[in-house]
Amino acid sequence: MKKPAAAITIRSFDTHGPAMARLQKFCSIGYLNTTGRRLSEEELVSALAGARIAIAGTEPFTGTVMASAPELRIISRVGTGTDSIDLEEALRRGITVFTTPAAPVQAVAEHTLALALAVMKNLGFYHDRMREESPEIRPGVLLEGKRIGVVGLGRIGTRVATLFGALGCAVSFFDPHPGGTPGKTWEPASSLRDLAAASDILTLHTPAQPGNLPLLDAPFFAACKRGIIIINTARGSLINEEAMMAALEDGTVAGAGLDVLPREPYSGPLLSCPQVIVTPHVASNTLETRARMELEAVEQAIGALIRGES
To answer: Per-residue pLDDT tens for 246-256?
Structure first.
């Protein structure tokens, strides 16, 4: 019996790991992304030719892409978000979409903490000064005693709140999509703006808004506590870039740690801000986490095949 074809469209995948071995047991590999970057819509159309399964990253699975891949029945994302996938079109075409929500929790939470500390301790600034052999110094601030505002209390937000709380921070939260289980010592805020007005650090852990509208816009920044630090390891569309730049320039925002940006790969004005630490959407990219995520994505796809759901 001929094996169904799988396209590995994600920009990096361990071809020698257990996920690949498991996938090859049930599928033939019709395409493997070896470019090291996210595929464009045109490239994705070509990659999916004849594929029944896509092991995906954040490539644009638009209606146009799905229309060009009539045999596609499963999109299994190595990651948590689905804003790069037209879910309505997938449903209409009978394409099942999976994500891996559990695997990246610890890695993303640790990256969130690392970004916050890097901003507060001026690590990017000092790295650049050392390379330039400059004697300039500037004071950092302590994390202990700061109030952390967590936006979104799902798996990752809950883990982030726990980590910051263990380091002596007060934790408040606001969940645009209620459903989490708040800890007894975490204080709920009545609105996002109330949370921003009280927080020293605000960290985002919520899905993209409908239509990819920003959650943090000019009115939001006007309501912030002056000197707030913004951390985003969720989705780049949650922050209005122009509003963030204005808030950085006038001192409303003291600094930011960003793993996700409005456009990726990113080459915009936030890179010119010394008080902003930017990483290229790699919060979940630890060796242990990637292996778990890849295997979880593959197992979900294979499970659907075995159950005859695709």
So the answer is: 999 999 999 99
Which residue is catalytic, options 52, 111, 155, 281?
281
Q: Enumerate residues 6+ apart whose C-beta is below 8 A from 308.
A: none
Q: In a 3-state reduction of DSSP, which class is residue 37?
A: coil
Domain match, 99 and 121 both: no
Number of folded domains in the chain?
Answer: 2
Phi, psi (rounded to 5 degrees) for 55: -95, 105
Q: How many residues does the chain have?
A: 310
Q: Can you tell me whether residue 112 is helix, strand or coil? A: helix
Clarify whether residues 300 and 274 are in a common domain.
no
The catalytic residue among 77, 111, 235, 290 is 235
d(CA 262, CA 219): 19
- Annotation says 281 is catalytic: yes
CA angle 10-13-18, nearest 5°? 135
Q: Is 264 a catalytic residue?
A: yes
How many angstroms separate the CA atoms of 261 and 204, rounded?
A: 12
Helix, strand, or coil (residue 217): coil
Distance CA 136, CA 139 (A): 10
Taking the model in full, what pTM does it have?
Answer: 0.85
Cα 17 to Cα 22: distance, rounded to the nearest angstrom: 9
- Residue 135: other Cβ atoms inside 10 A: 6
Burial of 130 (0-12, 13-18, 19+ CB in 10 A): exposed
Q: What is the pLDDT of residue 182?
A: 57
DSSP 104: T
- Give the bridge partners for 174, in sequence order: 151
Helices (H) and strands (E) in the chain, counts: 11, 12
Instruction: Report d(CA 297, CA 101) in Å as an integer.
Output: 10
Q: Which residue in 41, 264, 288, 309 is the catalytic one?
A: 264
The boundaries of the domain holding residue 58 are 5-103+287-307
Q: What is the pLDDT of residues 69-119, one digit of tens each?
A: 999 999 999 988 898 999 999 999 999 999 999 899 999 999 999 999 999
